[in-house]
Amino acid sequence: MTKLYGIGLVLGIALFLTGCETPIVTQTPQERQTIAATIASEAPGDYFIGRRFYKVDYKMWGWIKKPGEAWKKSRMVMLNEQKILAPDRVRNAIGSDNNYEYRLSGYFSGENVYEPASDTVYPEFVLTGASVISTNPPLIFPDRRWVDPTIRLIAPPQY
Question: What percent of the chain has pLDDT over 70?
Answer without folding.
Answer: 84
